[in-house]
Write the structure tokens for this entry.
Amino acid sequence: MNSLLKEDHALTFSVKGFYSFSRKRKQVEKKIEIKSQKFAHEVLPKKFLSRLFGPSDTWKVFFKQADAFAFVHKVRLNLHVFAFESESFKADVHQGRRMYLVATYPVFWHYYSQLDKAHRHHYEIIPEGSVCKLYFDLEFYREFNPGLENGYALCQIFIKYVCAWLNEVFSFDCDERNVLILDASTASKYSEHLIFQLPNAAFKDNLQIGSFVQFISTQLVMWLKESVSLGDKENQAVGRSSTKAIEIKTEDGASDQKKSAESIDFPKPDLPPSRVTSTKFRSRKIFSLFSKEMLQKLIVKDKNCEETLICDLGVYTKNRNFRLFLSQKLGQKNPLVLSGHNKFLPSSASTEENQTIFFHSLIANVENSSNLKFLVFEQEKQIKLRARNLQLKNPDFPGDEGDASEQSPYPEVDAFISSLVGSNGRRGKIRHWFYFMEGNLLCYDIVGYRWCENIKREHKSNNIRLFVDLKKCAYYQKCHDPVCKQNNFCSEYYDLPGNVLPWIEDLSAEETNDDLITNDDDEELEDSLLAIAVENIEQSLTESELEDDDDDDDDMLVSVAEQMDISVS
């Protein structure tokens, strides 16, 4: 009887609930019906069948790019990081938000190929320092370039131009048949990706590619400017431009100079030449292959009606997101597909064409082999091209007072420092100078020559600095290397040659040597403070140019379960 009473009590509900049909219940039933109709068309993806010696079936989603890469480096299972945009990010507060997926190439393609076309908003992340293929992003707006309706014609000219430089610099013979062309053009915009498939060759990383692309683009712009005689300033820039390929290799031998006040020894008598050798490029040979009218077409107008190159110079940054084959940007309907004029024919055992194209389109998908040749291009950054307005600017600095293109208040010292690091087999140059009136100190940032007295050789990546103490009429060396800076390294003081001290003769007769000599301890402290000031200035200049490459400051978690059951959009 008790159990029956409990059962009756469990079934009890109000009279209103028995006889009425509430508005809320109608709304719930309508939502359920809509959901059921939606999911009736959904198909669960086929599961990837893992094999004993096959790729890992790892599939992991992260909210932060840094966490995704940390996982990849920790697990070490030939995993790769992809970025994707979700429909859940359409709200303004999430505009531009991306999530990160870790998987092997085969596993990613297995699920990616089954994903609804409308939900493919994926990007390959080109890892910092990773060996990769040469790639380009070509684009222009048709509205602002009415005479350039045929984008393919421009693409052909551009490919021929790049191939000519590849042959000149790296001795590679290639043509349009070595270039995978993907197209995402619309009625309003021409947009294509070029991925060069060089046999048994790849660039050391995408920063090296950026240096190469910057160089050939700068050469193009300077040649066009020179050909129309835009003025002496541009012609002088062409004369100063770096037209050298740099092939890294160590050289033996040292200069046979003696230390003296009149010599240019630095920072000791046996100063070795630069560890890089240079080969001049025959740029005239390159440009003889084209007419001015052909190359002029590679200069297009952007949305602001300003001149720019047809190729985007900004796609060579670290951990760059590059749109995947068959993907489209969130909110757009122009997926990146195989171009109708693509002539690259991959040799692959795969029976599925899209899968073959997908693997060849991956920038960082480079198979290691004993025949693989690593391409390195280190440009002497004397002139750098800004994409907007095609301005030629000195690199790394905004071009304010102190630029290497301008002289310091002491041009004789400038000339001495230039000859010091740029003669007798040394290829250094002044990148930038700082002058401190308080303390009468000149500081020179040097590029192209990294010999450090502390380690008795060149630094592999860190540049050096030369300080000139105008009160002591001497110079010394410091550098950017963290270890040297931590040890507060400073080289010996070396006397300036007398022929670079014309101001000494102008000193008044009453000025004695005691006026030129101060307490050594005070001088070292003063120089240290000035050096710190220089470092702070350079750091502020550098930080202003850095771009935010991850979402470390964003801690908000966003749901993406609506995309597909395996959490991929």
Q: What stands out?
A: The CA atoms of residues 269 and 275 lie 17 Å apart.
